Amino acid sequence: MAPSPMFPLGSVLFPFVPIPLRVFEPRYLTMVGRLLDEDEPGFEFGVVLIERGPEAGGGDQRASVGTMARLVSAAAGADDLLIVGVGTRRFTVDRWVDENPYPRAELSMLPELEWSEALAPLRAEAEAVVRRVIARVAEPQPDAGAELSDDPVAAAWQLAAIAPLGEYDRYTLLQSTSMGSLLRQTIDLTLEAEELWSAEWGS
To answer: CA–CA distance from 203 to each of 130, 176, 200 (Å)?
Structure first.
């Protein structure tokens, strides 16, 4: 498998979730330009969390699990590109390769999480907890009230995306090995976050 173009970021991308990006670094402008030149539609790049270091300029420490993003739109600005990707498959990074002219890595795709109707009550609980806690946050996320997909797998990842969590908690969710684990950890981490806020606010 040929190395995949990579976009290390300060945030986690989940499957089935869109991510808007402003691309201004020359190396990433080159990467997106080459993706747009591909003959086949549906071109993808990998997104990994920067665990330590800056987003721009390199010299960062990167997570080993990430998500492929399918490039769905691109619009040129005066000196940048505004693109939108949508998360697809999760992967592990086997090896980073030569980063000239932009970051690339050899990847192994992770299996998709499987849905069972027996998980429906847990999913309902996760949605109730996430939406309740979001309502208590002083500055709720703008997409907190967004409708979830009718696809239960997509909906579970979308819940993880709107849960009011920090990036390291989100990275924990990204590494889930089963759908039950994803839903349970979404509940537990969201409740832990609520406890921290309650302690800070004295309520």
So the answer is: 18, 32, 8
